[in-house]
Fold:
Amino acid sequence: MAKLGSNASGLRRYNERLVLSTIRRMKEASKTEIARETGLSPQAAMRIVENLETDGRLIRVGKRTGSKGQPSILYRINGDSGMTIGVEIGRDKLACAMLDFDGRVMAYESRANAFPSPSDALEMIRQFTRTGFDSVPDSQKQGFMGFGIAMPWFLGEWDEDEEPGGTMVSQWPVQDLEAFFRSNLDGPVMFDNDGNAAALSELHCGAGAQISDFLYIHLGHFVGGGLVLGNEVRRGHHGNAASLASMPLSVSDPGKFLLHHASASRMPAGIKKSDPGWSEWYRTCVDALAFAITGANGLLDLQAIIIGGDHGPDTMADLLDDIGKALRKSAPRDFFQIELLRGRNNARAAAIGAALLPVHSSFNPNLKSLFKTRS
Structure:
């Protein structure tokens, strides 16, 4: 039977990841600050920082003068040391994002595409990659870490009427997707649910950067989301945690889910805010989200709810305000009022999160990297 044992190389990898993730969160930091934030000894922090600087992952960005002693050298992530490409395959669009190693968006493209096919997605990825690679220096191309692809796990299971079935089922056979993209793209390919990816984007370079426990809600063609606990995206046993679209809203009407009340697809095409149908959708959306948030927070006791989406900034601001009012009005007595935050990445969240997948996999501190498997 396989057993786990710790090893020196695993500990070194974990500590390097810990230092990188700490600097990524703080934007820039001195060796003393890194030691304090990570719990590493000053000697260990100094050695790791110097090794990462030698490897090109960290750069010096200046000095900070304190009340006494020598000025402290400040370090930050060297974005030019690598790059990734992320892809969102949605029910109504295809989107690609190119990020540097520091998570800065270098390029982004989105195309409306109702129920895109795998070949549609592959064509756009290849074109975006060629254009992106032409715009960066050779040194950064050499640090290319791969592709991240974010999509609903059940992309082919709902048609435009939000009922199971349709032509999408035959076009997106889930068991063949990984093999299809890995055999047709030049580089490592990683996959995740679009809600998980969007939550990852807010955790690393969005409204959740300083929050350890939050639920991310994305208001797009279909409502979706992702869960972050202890600064980690929690994917669940099947990678489908925080599948908000399938959250039931009523015992008396078990066939109605959050999908039917908070999805943009429920609005008639071309509707305007001045139309009666808009007010009806908006009010229903607010009430449904307040109901879902009450249940989620009662179960998880979160620090915050982050809401992003494809709607404009004014609509998003109104939604947060009215959801807050609904929560204060209808929440049970033992409900701790939760902070509502507006997402920073919005329509780009899933593509940015997809691009973060290769970085997160290789450089995020994970206790598994402390261990080796032995027979």
In short: The domain at 3-77 is CATH 1.10.10.10 (Arc Repressor Mutant, subunit A).
